[in-house]
Design a protein that fits this description.
Number of strands: 15
Strand content: 15-25%
Number of domains: 2
Radius of gyration: 24 Å
Number of helices: 15
Distance between the termini: 29 Å
Structural class: alpha/beta
Length: about 425
């Protein structure tokens, strides 16, 4: 089964021969290698590029193990390309397998890394360089620091619903139900039944993601990291902060004073989960005050299937699952996403109070902006009023959308707010 990833493929095509290292990042097993070595290679071959002009190095294979030494990698590629009038493409897969080696000219100096090799190779005028890597070394923070403006990042995500549906077809509602349960990790589609899909997703956490973070960051309290994962997965769409998380862990586990988990430790561990692309922090933004709040904020899982797997497919909270899916879709569409906060003066219990109202998402991209509420169902007038009231407090003319699970056809209310079914929204990226 060929899964189309045109959004990312077109980015790679657009970045070709721009003098930068193209760095394909994203959570492990989301399809980075497939994008580069299958889809992009197929594009190059169909464009007339000879196969022997594509240099492919797979550092996870024994045949290429010598090239884990960055000096050997640089020497090999230079030997293939220098002195030739032909143009070459270099694909380096699983770059996190690269070793650091002593500087042969100064053993006491800074070690030589793959960043040194790639920055050297990018200077060759007849070579276009592309690399993929998993979270254990190719974290966005590392890439941006080490390449210092000499790279273009293509951030790959698990399958969007549009990509998922293009692959599976059939009834749209049924496909969405499966997507909301198992998520969009590409290999889920190749598993023969539901039990195999559940097993695969559970193993990703225990055998891949947790091990990567523990080894990379030398985690002293693996139990705490595991507890944080459970709490964040259980509370997607809920406001929280490191202090709340540490208090919850200490309370539930009834830890002794000397064993208690500090908020600083939790903050660091939550940062590791973000760097590994497992979770994204979504900050709250004061729409009228035009400023961000420090805490609390919300955390969303990169893939809803991974979230469900982590908590044993037990907490099927449709409201929060829908919200996570909508958030991920906006990020996939390369929007900046915040949680909106607006205030109104309302009378409660006979007193006039300053009440904060929340807008689920403010999405911004290229000068465009849209306000979005994610709602599983609006079954009565009071629910409709509660969900749409914040829109009336904003005071600008940018589009306002309610993404709903309980409708199929889109329509506008008397205030110009678009009501649209979630499947319709996910399949129509012309809206934003």
């Amino acid at each position: 089964m060929e899964i189309k990833r045109d959004r990312y493929l077109n980015q790679l095509i657009g970045f070709a021969w721009n003098g930068q290292v193209k760095v394909v990042t994203g959570i492990r097993r989301c399809g980075k290698s497939y994008l580069l070595r299958t889809l992009y290679k197929k594009h190059l071959l169909s464009s007339g590029v000879a196969e022997d002009r594509i240099i492919s190095v797979e550092l996870d294979l024994a045949r290429d193990i010598r090239y884990r030494n960055p000096l050997e990698l640089a020497a090999y590629v230079r030997g293939r390309t220098e002195g030739s009038n032909e143009k070459f493409y270099l694909f380096v897969d699983e770059i996190q397998m690269s070793d650091e080696v002593p500087n042969p000219y100064n053993e006491a100096g800074k070690a030589v890394t793959f960043y040194d090799a790639l920055n050297d190779l990018r200077s060759l005028p007849n070579l276009d360089v592309y690399v993929t890597g998993s979270n254990s070394r190719m974290l966005s923070s590392d890439v941006l620091t080490e390449f210092r403006g000499r790279s273009d990042e293509v951030r790959v995500h698990p399958l969007s619903f549009a990509e998922y549906y293009a692959a599976v077809g059939g009834d749209k509602s049924g496909a969405f139900d499966n997507y909301a349960f198992f998520g969009g990790m590409p290999l889920v589609l190749s598993r023969p039944d539901d039990e195999a899909r559940m097993t695969y997703l559970k193993s990703l956490f225990s055998e891949v993601y947790l091990k990567d973070i523990v080894e990379r960051k030398r985690i002293a309290r693996e139990d705490v990291l595991s507890d944080i994962l459970d709490l964040l997965c259980s509370s997607v769409g809920s406001l929280t902060n490191p202090t709340n998380v540490s208090n919850a862990i200490n309370s539930v586990k009834k830890l002794k004073r000397q064993e208690r988990v500090s908020s600083n430790t939790v903050r660091a561990y939550m940062g590791y989960l973000e760097d590994a692309f497992l979770f994204s922090e979504c900050k709250r933004y004061d729409v009228k005050g035009k400023s961000y709040f420090d805490y609390p904020n919300k955390y969303y899982c990169e893939d809803i299937g991974l979230r469900n797997a982590r908590i044993g497919f037990r907490q099927q909270e449709p409201t929060h699952i829908l919200e996570n899916i909508v958030y991920n879709e906006l990020v996939i569409r390369r929007a900046g996403v915040d949680i909106g906060v607006v205030y109104s003066n309302e009378r409660k219990d006979g007193k006039l109070k300053h009440i904060a109202r929340e807008i689920d998402f403010i999405a911004s991209k290229g000068g465009k902006k849209v306000y979005i509420q994610s709602v599983y169902a609006m079954e009565n007038d009071s629910k409709i009023e509660a969900e749409t009231r914040p829109f009336g407090l904003i005071g600008d003319s940018f589009p306002k959308i309610v993404v709903r699970h309980d409708i199929r056809k889109r329509w506008y209310d008397e205030n110009g707010v678009l009501n649209i079914g979630v499947v319709d929204f996910l399949l129509d990226d012309s809206l934003f």
